């Protein structure tokens, strides 16, 4: 067995000793694989998220006005593997959110909020809209107020508040909100509910039916009562005669009338211009009503009904399009959270800067064609059974045909800390239930707050995702009613439709948690199938598309029954059942730019996901990967260079041959090799004839490929040294004064000396003229290569001398022409 040895010595000081090396094991060269690794994220979930959301899409909003300065905001992937998206950022607080999804286009959603920067002064509400599934958001404002009999635009002490949003079946958006004059002489306190409409997905807003006048749904001209907490919903999906009706509910604070819960309805035939008001509940300590519509057109309203230290969630229904209501039952009753402030009487969360808190129920109805169609869900946070029990997020369910509500706790808060402002939505496509809430479950001091998302595919069993990586501090703001009325917002919302889910909430952007810095946030969530986890494109003269069985939706939930659809340049290739895992496209030409698309269609209610596109150049990029295993073998006529040709381009496409290989020394091209076997992936050799019995350094090589008139050169290989000339058959140096001495390559001053020797022999040392003075440098020397025939070679030194305990000597050998070295 032939072996080639080149020996290198590293030493501080070298004299005499003996070492032996034997039984070397051949090593196989390998490639380094670079992967994304992070302790914070699951890599598969990260890749799935990037495929679905495209992290490169970062929104820079359009210029709105000289006063509003757009700020770039980018999505952040959290430890939950869900993105946290800041919708918009500007001075002033944005809170009390509401959101709706366009039934004609689930990629279009409109978010609303109280915006203390833009809606005060001109008394126009803020709208934030997306047309690309939440990747980018833009800002708009509702129509200007022109009805001077209803409001006084010159009054700087007015307020506009409590936004609501819904869509009609044809995709028109209706934005409801309240207006009140806080001071203003004879008309102090006059207030009302108003609306603006948008027919372009939130880009522009007008008044219903008449763009010259802001119309009031209800207006109290004299201000002897006050309308508050408006929530709006529409009949989008029923097949009843009331489909298209829009319902808005609110609380009327009026001592003389008993402060009833009111609702108003309007229809498409009335252009949503004329509204009819009806009473839902006549009296009591009530607030925050919310309407919802079922698949048969039944309208349901739930609201907060305070009863001492408890809060009830009564549910009323109307089966005649909102003309009259009957009470069904209380969906649930919970003890309030927080403590009651002695001055204001409000319940407050003491650990959260004394922010006020109310248990406001939210109600939704399942309009899907799932087995739960028609089920009513009511959600609320609070303490069950008694005031000292742990806080939970509770869901009460009433199924069609049943008369008993089922209440379950759906959070995963093991500490029992504060949870508040829960909101709920049911996707009418899937029947999946989606919930948002704030939770302090990660802070033992019950001070910091996290945003939380919970979801259930069966309406009973819930999974949870923490939307924030770190808890946030709450710094509430005092309101005019005095102590015990510190405000941080009163409610959140979440919307789900056609597998798109948008929780809408606020977070402070300052470490101190000041309310003045809270901005609008969402998380882009989909329950639709995403691209196969291991979807691969093997690119060459033909293209192979392949995938495996790891098929999931955007939340990472497994899909077990599915079909894969493939597309080429937007045209459908075909569908592939679960048993098929690849497709080969032979109808391609090298150099063509081709876009392949993949879509997974789940056999269950999730249905089809979006098409995920991958653009390639057939045959790959012209530039190849560098050559590998570049080595230099001593040869009697010079240097025999050996290497392995690459077989893939820089974008991992497979090719069959290379045009040539260029060999360089210190940036100067020595030769361009075009002869011999230029097959991709195979080993090539080239004999470079040059002066022998010498070491030379700085060799590297590149690969050249050509396509039509284009050429590309690869990146450089590793740089190596080489010995020109035949390797020795035996290796025996005595270091005596003779002309027959070893050919060496060294980085110091290695030489023969007799300054100090053992038994008067000469010594080979790294410091020949300094009498072995102490040094701190590391010197090396490479000896002339030697070729041997045995599988167990011996290498010995008669003596090695080290003068100090800190001195070291290393002996290494190479068997591949200097590419790799082994220490012996």
Task: Give an overview in words.
With 824 residues, this protein is mainly β. 1% of the residues lie in helices and 42% in strands. It has one helix and 58 strands. Strands 1, 52, 55, 56, 57 and 58 form a six-stranded antiparallel sheet that branches. Strands 2, 3, 33, 34, 35 and 36 form a six-stranded antiparallel sheet that branches. Strand 16 and strand 17 form a beta hairpin. The longest helix has 11 residues, at 43-53. The chain starts with a strand and ends with a strand. Mean pLDDT is 84; it is low at 10-71.
* Amount of helix: under 10%
Helix and strand composition category:
mainly beta
- Overall geometry comes to elongated
Quantity of strands, as a count: 58
In short:
With 824 residues, the protein is mostly beta strands. Helix content is 1%, strand content 42%.
Write the SSE topology.
Blueprint lengths: L2 E9 L31 H11 L22 E2 L5 E6 L5 E9 L2 E11 L10 E5 L7 E4 L16 E10 L5 E9 L9 E8 L17 E5 L5 E9 L11 E8 L7 E6 L9 E6 L4 E8 L5 E9 L2 E9 L7 E10 L3 E2 L6 E3 L5 E2 L5 E4 L10 E8 L7 E8 L7 E4 L9 E8 L6 E7 L10 E7 L6 E4 L10 E2 L7 E2 L5 E5 L2 E9 L9 E5 L2 E2 L9 E4 L3 E4 L15 E7 L2 E6 L5 E4 L7 E10 L9 E6 L10 E8 L2 E7 L15 E6 L2 E6 L9 E7 L4 E14 L2 E4 L6 E5 L19 E3 L4 E3 L9 E3 L13 E5 L2 E3 L20 E6 L7 E2 L1
Antiparallel strand pairs: 1-55, 1-56, 1-57, 2-3, 3-35, 4-5, 5-6, 6-7, 8-9, 9-10, 10-11, 12-13, 13-14, 14-15, 16-17, 17-18, 18-19, 20-21, 21-22, 23-24, 24-25, 25-26, 27-28, 28-29, 29-30, 31-32, 33-34, 34-35, 34-36, 37-38, 38-41, 39-40, 39-42, 42-43, 44-45, 45-48, 46-47, 46-49, 49-50, 49-51, ...
């Amino acid at each position: 067995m032939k072996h080639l040895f080149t020996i290198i010595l590293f030493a501080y000081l070298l004299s005499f000793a003996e070492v032996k090396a034997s039984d070397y094991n051949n090593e196989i060269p390998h490639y380094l694989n670079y992967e994304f690794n992070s302790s914070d994220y699951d890599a598969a979930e990260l890749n799935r998220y990037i495929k679905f959301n495209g992290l490169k899409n970062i929104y820079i909003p359009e210029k709105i006005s000289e006063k509003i300065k757009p700020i770039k905001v980018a999505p952040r992937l959290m430890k939950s593997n869900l993105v946290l998206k800041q919708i918009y950022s500007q001075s002033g607080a944005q809170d009390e959110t509401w959101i709706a999804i366009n039934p004609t286009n689930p990629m279009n959603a409109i978010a609303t909020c109280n915006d203390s920067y833009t809606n005060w002064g001109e008394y126009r509400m803020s709208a934030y809209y997306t047309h690309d599934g939440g990747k980018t958001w833009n800002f708009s404002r509702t129509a200007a107020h022109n009805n001077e009999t209803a409001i006084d635009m010159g009054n700087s002490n007015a307020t506009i508040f409590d936004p609501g949003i819904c869509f009609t079946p044809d995709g028109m958006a209706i934005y409801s909100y309240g207006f009140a004059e806080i001071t203003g002489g004879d008309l102090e306190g006059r207030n009302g509910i108003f609306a603006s409409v948008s027919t372009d997905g939130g880009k522009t807003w007008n008044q219903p039916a008449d763009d010259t006048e802001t119309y009031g749904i209800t207006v109290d001209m004299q201000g002897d009562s006050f309308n508050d907490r408006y929530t709006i919903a529409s009949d989008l999906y029923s097949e009843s005669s009331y489909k298209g009706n829009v319902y808005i509910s609110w609380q009327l604070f009026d001592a003389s009338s008993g402060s009833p819960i009111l609702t108003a309805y309007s229809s498409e035939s009335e252009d949503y211009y004329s509204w009819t008001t009806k009473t839902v509940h006549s009296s009591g300590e009530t607030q925050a009503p919310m309407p919802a519509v079922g698949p048969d057109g039944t309208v349901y309203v739930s609201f907060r009904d305070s009863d001492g230290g408890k809060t009830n969630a009564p549910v009323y229904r109307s089966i005649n399009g909102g003309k009259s209501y009957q009470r069904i039952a209380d969906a649930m009753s919970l003890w309030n959270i927080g403590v009651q402030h002695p001055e204001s009487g409000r319940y407050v969360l003491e650990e959260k800067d004394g922010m006020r808190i109310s248990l406001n129920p939210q109600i939704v109805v399942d309009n899907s064609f799932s087995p739960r169609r028609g089920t009513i869900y009511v959600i609320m946070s609070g303490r069950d059974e008694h005031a000292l029990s742990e806080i939970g997020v509770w869901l009460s369910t009433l199924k069609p045909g049943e008369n008993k509500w089922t209440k379950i706790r759906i959070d995963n808060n093991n500490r029992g800390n504060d949870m508040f402002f829960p909101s709920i939505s049911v996707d009418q496509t899937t029947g999946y239930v989606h919930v948002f809430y704030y939770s302090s479950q990660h802070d033992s001091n019950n001070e910091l707050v996290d945003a939380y998302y919970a979801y259930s595919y069966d309406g009973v069993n819930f999974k949870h995702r923490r939307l924030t990586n770190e808890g946030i501090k709450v710094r509430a703001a005092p309101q005019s009613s005095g102590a015990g009325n510190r405000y941080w917002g009163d409610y959140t919302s979440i919307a789900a439709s056609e597998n798109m889910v948008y929780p809408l909430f606020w977070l402070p952007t300052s470490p101190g948690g000041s309310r003045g810095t809270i901005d609008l946030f969402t998380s882009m969530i989909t329950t639709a199938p995403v691209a196969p986890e291991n979807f691969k494109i093997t690119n060459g003269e033909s293209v192979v598309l392949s995938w495996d069985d790891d098929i999931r939706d955007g939340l990472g939930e497994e899909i077990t029954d599915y079909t894969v659809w493939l597309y080429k340049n937007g045209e459908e290739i075909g569908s592939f059942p679960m048993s098929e895992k690849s497709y080969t496209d032979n109808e391609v030409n090298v150099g063509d730019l081709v876009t392949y698309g993949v879509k997974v269609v789940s056999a269950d209610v999730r249905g089809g996901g979006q098409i995920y596109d991958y653009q390639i150049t057939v045959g790959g990029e012209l530039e190849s990967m560098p050559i590998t295993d570049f080595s230099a073998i001593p040869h009697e006529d010079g240097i025999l260079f050996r290497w392995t040709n690459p077989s893939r381009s820089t974008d991992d496409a497979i090719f069959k041959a290379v045009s040539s290989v260029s060999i360089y020394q210190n940036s100067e091209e020595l030769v361009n090799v075009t002869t011999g076997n230029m097959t991709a992936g195979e080993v090539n050799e080239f004999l470079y004839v040059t002066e022998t019995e010498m070491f030379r350094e700085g060799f590297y090589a590149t690969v050249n490929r050509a396509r039509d008139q284009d050429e590309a050169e690869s990146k450089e290989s590793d740089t190596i040294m080489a010995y020109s000339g035949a390797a020795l058959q035996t290796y025996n140096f005595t270091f005596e004064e003779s002309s027959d001495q070893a050919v060496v390559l060294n980085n110091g001053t290695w030489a023969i000396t007799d300054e100090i020797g053992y038994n008067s022999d000469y010594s080979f040392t790294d410091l020949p003229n300094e009498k072995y003075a102490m040094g701190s440098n590391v010197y090396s020397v490479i000896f002339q290569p030697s070729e041997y025939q045995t599988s167990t070679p011996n290498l010995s030194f008669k003596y090695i001398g080290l003068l100090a305990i800190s001195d070291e000597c290393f002996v290494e050998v190479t068997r591949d022409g200097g590419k790799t070295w082994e220490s012996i």
